[in-house]
Amino acid sequence: MLEVLIVDDDQIVVFIQKKMMNNHEIAQNPISFGKAADALDYIIQEQKLSQQKDFLILLDINMPNMNGWDFLKCLESHEQKSKYHVIMVTSSIDRKDKEKAKNFSTVRSFIEKPISASDCDKIKEISEISHFFEPV
Amino acid sequence: MRKNSGELKILVIEDNPGDFMLIQDYLSEEHHALEIQRAENFKVAKEILQNHSNFNTVLLDLSLPDINNTELLVKNILSISNGAPVVVLTGYTDKDYGAKTLSWGVSDYLLKDEINASNLSKSIHYSMERKKVQRQLYESEEKYRTLFDSSPLPMWVLDRHTLEFLSVNQAATKLYGYSREEFMKMTVRDLWAEEDDRIEKVVQDNFHELFTVKVKHFTKNRETLYIDVQSNPILFGGREARVTLAHNITEKLKAEEKLKHSQQRFKALVQDGSDLISIIDENFNYSYISPSVENVLGVNPEGMEGKNVFQYMHKEDRERIKDKIKYLGKKKSYQLPSYRYKDGAGGWRWLETIISDLRHDSSINGLVANSRDITKFKIQERQLRESLERYDIVAKATSDLITDYNIEKDVFQYSNAIHEIFGYSQNELGFSKKWWQEQIHPDDRLRVVEAANSIYERGQKLLNIEYRFQCLDGSYKYVLDRSYVITDDSGNPSRIIGSIQDITERRNYINAIERSNSRLREIAWTQSHVVRAPLARIMGLIDLLKNQRNNLDNIEEIIDNILNSSEELDKVIRKITIKTEEEF
After folding, report:
1. Domain boundary among B97, B123, B143
2. Distance (Å, rounded) from C-alpha B444 to C-alpha B432?
């Protein structure tokens, strides 16, 4: 099972992304977090309950306190990191950010805000998670 | 004949008492002072003769009882007679036999039957006289032989035809190293070292004449001798010979050779040397000029004799030199300042001259001028001066600090800019490499020292490096140090010439630009993110409105959010405008 998490401090962004996830049938009801630390806690908690779960995480970079990079570093130390599929979502993509993301095995893709219909299609095609969207 | 004229001592060897008596009588008839001794046989005669040596004559009878061989008897007696004449008395009548005894060396031969007082006495006296003459002759020969043998000049006698050695003296054996025996097996040709034909011809041409010839001889050890030969024709023991005096002139020739070399050397120095040597008379006219003038100045020396010295000298230099020459006589020799002199091609050469006053030397009778062409040196000197002036002007004109570092002595020299740029006065300066490195900013020092090491360790010629250098007041200035390495003859670095440019202003300016650039970059990055955040929201919301209108519960709220985001965007853009107008 693939659970979708939205990590962003901007509530409007979260609203838009939830709608898009829903409308494009990526997730019925994605869970959102305004703080990265909360998202991390949730993942650890969920992981304890079910070892079988995969996570698709839409991650904003610029956030107060724990930012996107800090969050990624924490994920990197997890045993189950192969089950985390992070999409970096940022208001403007920086070449340096893309370089930096190469250090993290969990990052699958970059999306520039706002998230578009074609972005959603591309998410479904990511090889590590595409099997979750195949028609039954 | 010798009656009353001194005592006559006679030995009579006679075995026959009758004969002895008879002889005694004969002798007594003619002589008063007479001492006769008798030997009856050979044995007694030998004893007497060996013990007494003062007989005037020996009378010998050939038929003695104790000896049969007449020849042996005669020769024996002759050998011990101590020069006394031996007169043989015999009964034989064979004249040939008598002649034979004469050939053995006896003085006379008398037949006993024919003897009387008169002819016996006559024979004794003739014999004695003859013996005396013989001895004189012998002594004179002896004298000449001694003269020949002990002459300090090497001499020899040669066969005139074969040139074989017949006799050599001691000096010759000593000079040539051959023994007398070796000489006797040689001819003089064996001594000749060269030019055999020439000597042969001289010998032939003067076969019966005296000649002198200079020849080269070899000694036994193959050392070369130069011999002045003087040779006279003589008769030597009846042979046609020549006596030769060999005057060893080797040492003399060597000395002459040395003298000749020394003269040639002197000539070479004067004629072909690079110095000009001239003799000038009291009116400053040349009385002699060395042939080297042709090489040095391209002037024919003969054309110059009698000409005035000043005629060739540059007008501007004449007075100066004349002034100096005025003081001649006070000093034996002194150096003139350099002056220009016209060469054979009409160009000017710089000469440097030492004048020696040899007017009182009768062989010179003038001033000796020893001149040297220093044109090349003068030109170099001028180039060097110009180059130094250029350096001075450059050092003054440039605001850069010019340094000259002597590696071996570890000493810096600075141009005045050291004061102008860094504020150091002469007293506050250090001059060692250590001092220089201490003034470099600690953060730059290691980098600069390492770069400088590449000069010493890797043979780098140029150094181009920026660093901070401490001023007298403790502040630092940025400098661009461009250094060039000068190497000595063997290629090792000897000096480092540096041009130190004060780039503090430029550096500060660049630093300011770099700072503002990074600030601008930072602002631009932040702004693009800040601007895009509300813009992305607006775009996202409008996208929802357009494509998902049916799935939206609260359209009013979405429109409000669009409006809020638009206002936020507006604020952000105004803020950027204000920021870019700020000064850095």
Report:
1. B143
2. 19
